[in-house]
């Protein structure tokens, strides 16, 4: 995607061939800054502190992180330590573990001196696959939005939650890819952007992306979505996912479940958009089995923003001394999901629906 007319991805090999560059998403939307990741600890910190975020991008960053670790210690013990370090950074997004397992499987048969170059190349392949997957998700989901606009005979309103655009992937995005595809082909689409407390990824990141791409949009408070649905103001919801079970349960940013309940009550179609690497074929019951990351309560109790003079300040917004809980994700059961938009097409949210698109998992499932 483009920033000020220049195309960017969220992660790419640096000119030295020994490190990678990323967009520092903690600085958006007010500052566009790049960070260099040159070592395992750099990659782990970037994932943990959400310099990079979004399940697909976390996976690609972890893959590059494993490659960077091989520059420091390419022994089997070094490989195992690097996997442990990176896997501990964000427990919910399955793409992270998937990418680590994929790269590690290719490295273990190799001599130590060959591991860095091979891992770096494999991480690059994972990145390219993510771009292709997201582009395909956009095409499949774009058809849904195009059909909806023709049926309505007017511009359509789509509700999003959190950020699942190109900033959450390598390029294009998951939930925003259909919106970009529809917009670019002339479909009249307007996006209602949930602010997405506590980290405000919708207000900060989704709005930043849509602004840059010229997509009409309006930022709303998280609790406004149900009201808009009751009054016919939302035609479809599209969200991303950090982990989706084999049965079609969708884990996404906290608050997604409430949007799905409101959508069901008001007859609004509710879609999740995600690549193959987000499906966890080992799980069936998302509510019971998906680990939910509990983040620092300070994300809820404090806000950082820009001051009128251009400076920045962090302020406290919760009663001093009150305890704070901060679960980062929730699970939307498959029964509330209209369809799962993947790079292979749109699946019914069920085991059989997903297996119809991914038959290679039928035996393992």
From TrEMBL:
<dbReference type="GO" id="GO:0019509">
    <property type="term" value="P:L-methionine salvage from methylthioadenosine"/>
</dbReference>
<feature type="binding site">
    <location>
        <begin position="252"/>
        <end position="253"/>
    </location>
    <ligand>
        <name>substrate</name>
    </ligand>
</feature>
<keyword id="KW-0028">Amino-acid biosynthesis</keyword>
<feature type="binding site">
    <location>
        <position position="201"/>
    </location>
    <ligand>
        <name>substrate</name>
    </ligand>
</feature>
<dbReference type="InterPro" id="IPR005251">
    <property type="entry name" value="IF-M1Pi"/>
</dbReference>
<dbReference type="InterPro" id="IPR027363">
    <property type="entry name" value="M1Pi_N"/>
</dbReference>
<protein>
    <recommendedName>
        <fullName>Methylthioribose-1-phosphate isomerase</fullName>
        <ecNumber>5.3.1.23</ecNumber>
    </recommendedName>
</protein>
<dbReference type="Pfam" id="PF01008">
    <property type="entry name" value="IF-2B"/>
</dbReference>
<comment type="function">
    <text>Catalyzes the interconversion of methylthioribose-1-phosphate (MTR-1-P) into methylthioribulose-1-phosphate (MTRu-1-P). Also catalyzes the interconversion of 5-deoxyribose 1-phosphate and 5-deoxyribulose 1-phosphate. Part of a bifunctional DHAP-shunt salvage pathway for SAM by-products.</text>
</comment>
<dbReference type="InterPro" id="IPR037171">
    <property type="entry name" value="NagB/RpiA_transferase-like"/>
</dbReference>
<keyword id="KW-0486">Methionine biosynthesis</keyword>
<comment type="pathway">
    <text>Amino-acid biosynthesis; L-methionine biosynthesis via salvage pathway; L-methionine from S-methyl-5-thio-alpha-D-ribose 1-phosphate: step 1/6.</text>
</comment>
<feature type="binding site">
    <location>
        <position position="90"/>
    </location>
    <ligand>
        <name>substrate</name>
    </ligand>
</feature>
<dbReference type="InterPro" id="IPR000649">
    <property type="entry name" value="IF-2B-related"/>
</dbReference>
<dbReference type="InterPro" id="IPR042529">
    <property type="entry name" value="IF_2B-like_C"/>
</dbReference>
<feature type="active site" description="Proton donor">
    <location>
        <position position="242"/>
    </location>
</feature>
<comment type="similarity">
    <text>Belongs to the EIF-2B alpha/beta/delta subunits family. MtnA subfamily.</text>
</comment>
<keyword id="KW-0413">Isomerase</keyword>
<dbReference type="InterPro" id="IPR011559">
    <property type="entry name" value="Initiation_fac_2B_a/b/d"/>
</dbReference>
<feature type="site" description="Transition state stabilizer">
    <location>
        <position position="162"/>
    </location>
</feature>
<dbReference type="GO" id="GO:0046523">
    <property type="term" value="F:S-methyl-5-thioribose-1-phosphate isomerase activity"/>
</dbReference>
<feature type="binding site">
    <location>
        <begin position="53"/>
        <end position="55"/>
    </location>
    <ligand>
        <name>substrate</name>
    </ligand>
</feature>
């Amino acid at each position: 995607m483009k920033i000020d007319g220049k195309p960017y991805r969220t992660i790419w090999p640096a000119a030295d061939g020994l490190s990678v560059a990323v967009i520092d998403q903690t600085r958006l939307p007010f500052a566009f800054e790049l960070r260099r990741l040159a070592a395992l600890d750099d990659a782990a910190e970037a994932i943990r502190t959400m310099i990079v975020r979004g399940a697909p991008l976390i996976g690609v960053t972890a893959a590059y992180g494993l490659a960077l670790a091989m520059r420091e210690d390419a022994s089997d013990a070094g490989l195992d330590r690097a996997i442990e370090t990176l896997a501990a950074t964000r427990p919910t997004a399955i793409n992270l573990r998937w990418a680590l397992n994929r790269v590690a499987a290719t490295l273990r048969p190799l001599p130590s001196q060959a591991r860095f170059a091979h891992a770096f190349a494999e991480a690059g392949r994972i990145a390219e696959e993510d771009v292709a997957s997201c582009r395909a998700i956009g095409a499949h989901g774009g058809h849904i939005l195009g059909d909806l606009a023709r049926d309505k005979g007017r511009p359509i309103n789509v509700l999003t939650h959190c950020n699942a655009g190109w900033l959450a992937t390598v390029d294009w995005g998951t939930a925003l890819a259909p919106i970009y595809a529809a917009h670019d082909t002339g479909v009249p689409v307007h996006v209602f952007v949930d602010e997405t407390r506590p980290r405000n990824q919708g207000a900060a990141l989704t709005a930043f992306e849509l602004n840059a791409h010229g997509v009409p949009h309006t930022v709303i408070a998280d609790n406004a979505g149900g009201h808009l649905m009751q009054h016919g103001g939302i035609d479809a919801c599209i969200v991303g996912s950090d982990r989706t079970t084999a049965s079609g349960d969708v884990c996404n940013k906290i608050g997604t479940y409430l949007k799905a309940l409101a959508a069901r009550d008001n007859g609004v179609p509710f879609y999740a958009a995600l690549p193959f690497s987000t499906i966890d074929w080992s799980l069936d019951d998302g509510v019971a089995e998906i680990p939910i990351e509990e983040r620092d309560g300070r994300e809820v109790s404090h806000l950082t923003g820009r001051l009128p003079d251009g400076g920045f300040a962090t302020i406290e917004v919760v009663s001093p001394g009150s305890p704070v809980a901060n679960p980062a994700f929730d699970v939307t059961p498959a029964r509330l999901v209209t369809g799962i938009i993947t790079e292979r097409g749109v699946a019914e949210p069920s085991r059989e629906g997903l297996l119809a698109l991914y038959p290679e998992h039928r035996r393992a499932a």
